[in-house]
């Protein structure tokens, strides 16, 4: 009766068969039969691995290793598991053993080589790739990866040899030829670089991009006359070839020929065979040139109109043109372009935000609400537009309930895994609203979340210090926070007021009076800040200047401070909290 293959042995046999199909293998230690105990553990390890139970898989494979330390497949699996656990040295050693134990397994060899590259052990990786290429001369991957390694480490001549080897294996193709041209430029071999392109031209003599590439090679070797000849040759084949026009535009710009730069820029932006992203790369430079010269507004506008004619359904093109119209103070036209941008791409957040900003600048509350409503309808889960709806309701309408609703919706849709300035600003506003709702724990929670994003934000630090002082909590911490704000902005009346208030709560009355005087001196608000004047009265009270304190409280009342606590201070002529 024929003996059944054990599981691990079968997997090794399959792996070996995959590495060199059709070739007979010499028997190696890894293909020896395993025990029933090993097979059971190995099967269990595979089940753990497939169930993504990495701890269980690691334990089971480790037991397999104890039984058969020279099993290549066990070493390979342990290597991968150790790497997933970030045990780099152990993972490297196991993969190295797997590659050594089964030199005929291509996957073990290439995995070990790639790991060496990732660990920046380039010399060992080079040697491993060389051995793998020698053992598996029909495999493309190790040749390609070694060429990449050579390129990354500055061994351009060796990289070129690898591409030649790859070309002999796969045949000539445009990608390999372009890669070889780049390497020829890097090693300064102009003749070979041009020769590579000429071989492609012989196959495709009417391909304009090949002549553009040849021109770029000549430009790299500082041969502009030859380069221009090839660019123009490309244009003879395809008069609207975008890359040829772009190259000529670049050249004439570099030598300061304004007229030629303008000519080729206009043609290039009208070209339909050059993608929008590439046009954008040129756009910033060309527009920069025009804005440095007076009287070029018409040329700038013409460029953007040209792009829209070539890309009529590109939302970004309309948005960019709107920016130009805003610059030219043609707001109604800018609004129309932004509306077109949002129609073409309803999820274009930047276009919606620009529309919102224009409406705010125009003080058009009807348009603001329409834009924010449309934006939320187009992007219903966008925290941006919940946030803008909330802050607009708060600032313009003083509608705190509506604002609170929108801001909580913004938080629900916010991505906390990658916090941005939007997260910080949202938490800042929510902390203020929570404080006003007497939910002080949540107010501190939101401030902590905001400060985790920007620990040195002076407004956040100021608010935090002030809230701590009101609650008579952690006053030393409050002082440190408040001091940071006036170090950043020593003339800010609000920051100076908070610092004076914290010092008062600590019983440092003379120092507090010094800072409250500075705050009143630098307060530029009209009418004067009533809360600041109330705090001045508080400090004067503790300095036993009761009459002066009451006068300050009464002045604060006259300025609109309707606090019931302030009324009690005036009535009883003493400080109360």
Summarize the structure.
76% of the residues lie in helices and 0% in strands. It contains 32 helices and no strands. Residues 1-32 have low confidence and may be disordered.
Describe the structure.
It is a single chain. With 577 residues, this protein is mainly α. Among the domains are: 104 residues, Tetratricopeptide repeat domain (Serine Threonine Protein Phosphatase 5, Tetratricopeptide repeat), CATH 1.25.40.10; 122 residues, Alpha Horseshoe (Serine Threonine Protein Phosphatase 5, Tetratricopeptide repeat), CATH 1.25.40.10. The protein contains 32 helices and no strands. The N and C termini lie far apart (96 Å).
**CATH class placement of the domain at 456-577:** Mainly Alpha
Q: Describe the largest sheet.
A: none
How helix-rich are the residues, as a percent range?
over 70%
CATH topology-level fold name of the domain at 456-577 = Serine Threonine Protein Phosphatase 5, Tetratricopeptide repeat
Q: Which radius of gyration do the C-alpha atoms yield?
A: 36 Å
Seen as an oligomer or otherwise, the chain set is single chain
Question: So how many helices?
Answer: 32
* Known CATH architecture of the domain at 456-577: Alpha Horseshoe
Structural class, from helix and strand content?
mainly alpha
**Record field, number of beta strands:** 0
Spatial separation of the terminal alpha carbons = 96 Å
**Overall geometry:** extended
Mean pLDDT: 88
* Low-pLDDT residue spans: 1-32
Q: Give the strand content.
A: under 5%
CATH superfamily of the domain at 456-577: Tetratricopeptide repeat domain
């Amino acid at each position: 009766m024929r003996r059944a293959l054990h599981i691990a042995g079968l997997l090794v046999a399959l792996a070996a068969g995959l590495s060199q199909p059709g070739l007979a293998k010499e028997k190696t230690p890894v293909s020896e039969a395993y025990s029933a105990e090993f097979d059971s553990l190995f099967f269990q390890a595979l089940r753990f691995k497939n169930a993504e139970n990495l701890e269980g898989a690691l334990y089971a494979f480790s037991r397999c290793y104890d039984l058969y330390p020279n099993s290549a497949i066990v070493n390979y699996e342990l290597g991968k598991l150790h790497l997933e656990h970030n045990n780099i040295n152990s993972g490297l050693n196991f993969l190295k053993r797997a590659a050594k134990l089964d030199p005929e397994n291509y996957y073990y060899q290439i995995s070990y080589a790639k790991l060496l590259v990732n660990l920046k052990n380039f010399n060992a990786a080079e040697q491993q790739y060389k051995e793998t290429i020698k053992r598996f001369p029909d495999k493309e991957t190790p040749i390609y990866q070694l060429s990449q390694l050579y390129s990354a480490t500055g061994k351009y001549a060796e990289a070129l040899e690898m591409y030649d080897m790859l070309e002999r294996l796969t045949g000539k193709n445009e990608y390999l030829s372009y890669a070889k041209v780049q390497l020829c430029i890097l090693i300064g071999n102009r003749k070979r670089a041009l020769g590579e392109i000429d071989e492609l031209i012989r196959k495709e003599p009417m391909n304009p991009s090949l002549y553009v590439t040849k021109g770029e090679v000549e430009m790299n070797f500082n041969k502009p006359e030859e380069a221009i000849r090839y660019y123009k040759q490309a244009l003879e084949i395809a008069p609207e070839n975008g890359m040829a026009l772009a190259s000529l535009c670049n050249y004439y710009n570099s030598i300061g020929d304004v007229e030629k730069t303008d000519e080729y820029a206009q043609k290039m932006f009208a070209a339909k065979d050059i993608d929008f992203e590439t046009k954008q790369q040129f756009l910033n430079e060309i527009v920069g040139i025009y804005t440095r010269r007076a009287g070029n507004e018409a040329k700038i506008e013409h460029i953007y109109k040209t792009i829209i004619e070539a890309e009529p359904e590109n939302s970004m093109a309309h948005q960019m043109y709107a920016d130009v119209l805003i610059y030219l103070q043609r707001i109604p036209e800018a609004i129309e372009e932004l509306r077109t941008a949002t129609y073409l791409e309803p999820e274009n957040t930047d276009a919606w935000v620009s529309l919102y900003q224009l409406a705010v600048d125009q003080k058009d509350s009807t348009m603001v609400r329409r834009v924010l409503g449309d934006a939320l309808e187009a992007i219903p889960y966008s925290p941006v537009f919940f946030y803008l709806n909330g802050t607009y309701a708060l600032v313009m309408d003083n509608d705190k309930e509506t604002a609170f609703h929108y801001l909580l919706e913004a938080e629900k849709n916010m991505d906390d895994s990658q916090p941005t300035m939007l997260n910080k600003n949202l938490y800042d506003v929510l902390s203020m609203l929570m404080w006003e709702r007497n939910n002080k724990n949540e107010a501190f929670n939101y401030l902590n979340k905001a400060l985790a994003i920007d620990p040195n934000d002076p407004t956040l630090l100021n608010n935090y210090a002030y809230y701590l002082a009101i609650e008579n909590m952690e006053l030393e911490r409050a002082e440190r926070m408040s001091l940071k704000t006036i170090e950043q902005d020593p003339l800010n009346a609000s920051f100076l007021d908070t610092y004076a208030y914290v010092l008062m709560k600590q019983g440092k009355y003379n120092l507090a009076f010094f800072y409250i005087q500075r705050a009143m001196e630098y307060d530029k608000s009209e009418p004067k800040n009533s809360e600041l004047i109330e705090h001045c009265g508080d400090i004067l009270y503790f300095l036993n200047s009761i009459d002066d304190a009451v006068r300050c409280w009464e002045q604060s009342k006259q300025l609109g401070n309707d606090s019931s606590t302030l009324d009690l201070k005036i009535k009883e002529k003493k400080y109360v909290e």
